[in-house]
Design brief:
The complex is a heterodimer. Chain A has one helix and six strands. By secondary structure, chain A is mostly beta strands. Chain A has one domain (3-92): Folate-binding superfamily (Folate-binding fold, 2-Layer Sandwich), CATH 3.30.2270. In chain A, the strands form two sheets. Chain A has a four-stranded antiparallel sheet, with no helix packed on it. The longest helix of chain A has 9 residues, at 36-44. Chain B is an alpha/beta fold. Classes of the chains: A mainly beta, B alpha/beta. Chains A and B meet through β3 and α1 of A and α10 of B.
Chain lengths: 97, 417
């Protein structure tokens, strides 16, 4: 079980959280202008990164807030958690803000 | 190839078992092949076997980064069934089940297919309605599946706690009698041996590090840890590593990779006569021929490539099994492990051509790929040989997500399956 550092509440066990999938996927501002391929890419295509991965978590059984985590998917070590609206750190290559 | 039979076994037994040969070669990679299969699991080995045996392709290599059958093929809980809701799924899984029924004879290798019955338990009204719908849908597709009352469940599988004080009591079950198990390692070895006999080169410890493409876009070969190899057709069958491999050709897929866990108990005398699945309380259990209880747990909630998972996931499954079969509360668990499964948004596989000419992909089998091994390999071989999908795998494209033609077994099963 992961120990996840909620930016609002501090470190808590994984069981208190739900995972929200890949982070920093912005909903297209004007969906009607997109092709079917672009819309499908927004809905379904994911990086599935092997290495440093940015993902959303929600502290469902805590403060209830969403935040982001940068986790290495080859070790499951969480390098950093950060609040919504912030960007992954610059040294974290592979970040796609 | 050394032919196996009762007579050859007897003869070997009388001569001190000294005459057994290697069952497949360990060749050096050739510079060029007609077809390269990336991934030496059950699906990849089956693909190569059917390419050589049914579709007349002779110059084939299987490239495996570790050892054959060392990924999810050797890590799953070996459940075989075909009672899926939608016509497309029924088509591909039933195609596989029909091949399972004759596989040991076809390969001349005992894969220990055991149609002992798969019983899926219902624990609430929704389950009852959903499973009865499955039973009817399956029958319309010519697939056996029948509804059992709680008393009939108890009769079919006596260790079950029926009528006890369970939090989610057993309200009935859907039974597919042709479902069951097979020996996972034997499936990999049987296909490897049969493919090798047809001239397929099985190249282990050979990780693909790049996919080479011509200026006009089509594939021309791969770079590997054992050098570059040319091929005009490449089939990727890499399960949890599919995204990584396909990225090398610039193809993005609707996949996420999750750890899925399984575990086995200490071996005990025969007690559990069938496979029992319970989606609602999340328990999957059968007994191996060695006597171990083979138990499937769930996936972690986050993507990962670690081939291990959280202990609380395993705990959750054991809680459910202790409720289902109180006699197992004193069983000790021997070991647990994880495999990386590639999951699509609709929980149905992708067996298809890709936007890159000459590049084919067979992936997205998620948490239930073992049962499909022969059928998956057969239709993928057909797709590669003819450069177009056959009618069984035609619905399982990448484009179905764009076109809204998803095959939503995720919603049909309400959980991973």
């Amino acid at each position: 079980m992961l120990l996840i550092n909620c930016p609002y509440c501090g470190p808590r066990p994984e069981a208190e959280f739900v995972n929200g999938g890949q982070a920093h996927i912005a909903r297209p501002a004007d969906p009607m202008s997109l092709t079917d391929d672009e819309w499908a890419a927004y809905l379904y295509m994911r990086d599935n990164t092997k290495g440093l991965h940015h993902e959303r978590w929600r502290h469902a059984n805590g403060c209830g807030r969403f935040f982001n985590a940068s986790r290495d998917t080859t070790t499951d070590i969480i390098k950093r958690t950060y609040r919504m609206g912030e960007r992954p750190e610059a040294e974290h290559q592979g970040a796609k803000p | 190839m050394q032919k196996f039979s009762a007579l050859s076994l007897l003869r070997a037994g009388l001569t001190g078992h000294a005459g057994w040969q290697r069952q497949w070669r360990s060749p050096e990679p050739k510079p060029t092949y007609d077809v390269i299969i990336v991934g030496g699991g059950g699906h990849g080995l089956a693909t190569a076997y059917y390419l050589a045996s049914r579709y007349g392709v002779k110059n084939i290599a299987i490239l495996e980064k570790g050892w054959i059958g060392g990924g999810n093929t050797g890590r799953n809980t070996t459940i075989i069934r075909s009672n899926y809701l939608f016509d497309e799924s029924a088509g591909i899984y039933e195609h596989a089940l029909k091949l399972w029924e004759g596989l040991s004879q076809e390969l001349n290798y005992n894969v220990m297919y055991s149609p002992r019955g798969v019983l899926m338990l219902a624990h609430n009204i929704h389950d009852v309605q959903s499973f009865k719908r499955h039973v009817h849908a399956n029958r319309l597709n010519g697939i056996d599946n029948e509804w059992l009352s709680p008393a009939e469940c108890k009769e079919f599988c006596p260790p079950l706690n029926v009528g006890g004080s369970m939090r989610y009591p057993i309200l009935g079950g859907a039974l597919q009698r042709r479902g069951g198990t097979a020996r996972h390692d034997a499936v990999a070895w049987g296909y490897a041996r049969a493919a090798d006999a047809l001239g397929v080169d099985i190249i282990e410890n050979c990780e693909v590090t790049g996919i080479r493409r011509a200026p006009t876009g089509e594939v021309v070969g791969v770079d590997t840890t054992r050098g570059s190899i040319n091929a005009k057709r490449i089939g990727v069958v890499a399960a949890g590593s599919t995204s990584t491999v396909m990225n090398m050709a610039g193809v993005r897929l609707p996949l996420e990779s999750f750890p899925l866990q399984a575990l086995v108990s200490e071996p005990v005398k025969p007690i559990f006569p069938c496979v029992v699945m319970s989606n609602t309380i999340h328990a999957y259990i059968s007994q191996s021929d060695k006597g171990e209880m083979v138990i499937g747990a769930g996936t972690d909630v986050y993507t990962s490539y670690t081939q291990r998972g959280g202990l609380h996931i395993v705990n959750h499954t054991l809680d459910a099994i202790c409720e289902l079969v109180p006699a197992f509360r004193r069983l000790r668990m021997l070991r647990n492990w994880g495999g990386i499964v590639d999951v699509t948004p609709d929980r149905s596989p992708i067996v298809a051509k890709t936007p890159v000419s000459g590049l084919y992909v067979n992936c997205g089998w998620g948490t239930g790929g073992f049962k499909a091994t022969p059928g998956s390999g057969e239709v993928f071989a057909s797709t590669i040989a003819k450069d177009e999908p056959n009618k069984i795998n035609a619905p399982f494209t990448i484009e179905r997500f764009r076109d809204g033609a998803v095959i939503d077994e995720a919603a049909a099963a309400a959980v991973a399956h």
